[in-house]
Amino acid sequence: MFSLKPVQHFYVASGCLGNYISIFLRMYNSLVERCFNDCVDNFTRKTLQKQEETCVMRCAEKFLKHSMRVGLRFAELNSQAATQD
């Protein structure tokens, strides 16, 4: 394998971090938009009503559980692919 100079390593690491932040922000924005559109339907108050708050909490929990399951599945597939090589 090849080794990188410290400056090159810095640029690679910062590029990876930028990609990670971009992916995280897209996931966060998707979660907020989906749960808001599904749960909030009354704009006459500053605060959420109890059923809206419950809906948002359930929506966020489902989204995070789904994301975790997808991540675990990708890890399993990656592990299987690595052992087949």
SSE blueprint:
Layout: H1 6-39, H2 50-84
Keywords: Chaperone, Disulfide bond, Membrane, Metal-binding, Mitochondrion, Mitochondrion inner membrane, Protein transport, Translocation, Transport, Zinc
Pfam families: zf-Tim10_DDP (PF02953)
Organism: Durio zibethinus (Durian)
Question: Would you write up a description of this structure?
Answer:
The chain has one domain: Mitochondrial import inner membrane translocase subunit tim13 like domains (Helix Hairpins, Orthogonal Bundle), CATH 1.10.287.810. The protein has 85 residues and is mostly helical. The mean pLDDT is 87. The longest helix has 35 residues. Helix 1 packs across helix 2. It is built from 2 helices and no strands. Keywords: Chaperone, Disulfide bond, Membrane, Metal-binding, Mitochondrion, Mitochondrion inner membrane, Protein transport, Translocation, Transport, Zinc. It is found in: Mitochondrion inner membrane. One of its GO terms (biological process) is protein transport. It is a peripheral membrane protein. Heterohexamer.
